[in-house]
């Protein structure tokens, strides 16, 4: 089986399509991709599977909706967009944020919504530096077992912020189908016979892992694969499915979209939006809150599955 790793340009040449089309296929979740350093890579095996699926006419709507995490937004790579009354920049990696951005543009035609696919930690820093309008966060504090509030206070010091719930998600381990290594929970991080696939610094998953290591008094040096990083839930699950590691941490929804993967549920996390409180007096942000609280927006998220919407739109805290 050929496991050659290709760049998006090479994939475009192979399939006789444009590079932008390759990015769109990846964003729709139809073609797994992963990062090597800062470069996007696609395995030849996954390209072959994509071609086979196209021949069979296989086109799962849930797969198409799955993921826009791998491909970075234009504001991350190509040009600097200013966060102002005409441009709303949303930081975060969950596909719900893409749906929110689309709803913002549909409701407010004069506003352009941009997505910046970065982790929670860096998203809050961008919010502090006025490079983002809204930041998503799922940062677990191992000392308090609370999500986001202390991080917002520390990363936006002295700046009043409002934390609004978007959804709850289940975090757990991706393992190979059938769980051949009998991985059960956090204590398995101590096992010397397992190889781990990690996430990049600054993302909520990495913060959760490092917090659990502190809680369990485990050194990162004890974990085989701790320095093996991928840049999204999808990339971690795909790496496990391809046998590049035994387990890795991510959200349950992605596990349901990848073949040859099982999921070990570990923890429910709160996924919030963070907005500077002064902006909530702006009619644009008031309308954004109306969108989040609307039945239409929530119904669309229900259709995706895998999200707990019991507190969607609820103000969790004001810092």
UniProtKB/TrEMBL annotation:
Pfam family, one: PBP_like
Start and end residues of each Helix-turn-helix domain: 6-54
PBP domain segment(s): 104-292
Entry protein name: Helix-turn-helix transcriptional regulator
Originating species: Intestinibacter bartlettii
Taxonomic classification: Bacteria, Bacillati, Bacillota, Clostridia, Peptostreptococcales
């Amino acid at each position: 089986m050929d496991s050659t790793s290709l760049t998006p340009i090479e994939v475009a040449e192979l399939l006789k399509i444009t590079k932008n089309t390759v990015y769109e296929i990846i964003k729709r979740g139809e073609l797994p991709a992963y990062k090597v350093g800062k470069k996007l890579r696609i395995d030849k095996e996954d390209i072959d599977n994509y071609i086979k699926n196209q021949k069979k006419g296989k086109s799962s709507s849930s797969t198409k909706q799955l993921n826009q995490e791998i491909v970075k937004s234009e504001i991350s790579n190509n040009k600097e967009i200013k966060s102002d009354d005409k441009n709303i920049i949303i930081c975060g990696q969950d596909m719900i944020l893409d749906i929110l951005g689309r709803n913002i543009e549909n409701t407010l035609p004069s506003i352009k919504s941009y997505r910046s696919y970065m982790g929670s930690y860096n998203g809050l820093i961008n919010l502090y530096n006025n490079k983002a309008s809204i930041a998503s966060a799922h940062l677990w504090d191992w000392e308090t077992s609370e999500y986001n509030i202390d991080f917002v206070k520390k990363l936006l010091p002295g700046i009043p912020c409002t934390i609004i719930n978007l959804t709850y998600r289940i975090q757990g381990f991706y393992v190979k189908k059938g769980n051949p290594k009998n991985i059960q929970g956090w204590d398995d991080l101590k096992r010397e016979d397992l190889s781990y696939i990690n996430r990049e610094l600054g993302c909520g998953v990495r913060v959760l892992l490092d917090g659990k290591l502190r809680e369990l008094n485990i050194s990162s040096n004890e974990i085989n694969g701790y320095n093996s990083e991928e840049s999204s839930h999808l990339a971690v699950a795909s790496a496990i499915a391809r046998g590049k590691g035994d387990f890795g941490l991510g959200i349950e929804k992605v596990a349901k979209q990848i073949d040859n993967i099982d999921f070990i549920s570990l923890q429910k996390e709160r996924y919030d939006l963070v907005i500077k409180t002064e902006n909530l007096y702006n009619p644009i942000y008031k309308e954004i809150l109306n969108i989040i609280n609307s039945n239409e927006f929530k119904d669309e998220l229900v259709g995706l599955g895998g999200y707990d919407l019991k507190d969607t739109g609820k103000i969790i805290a004001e810092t």
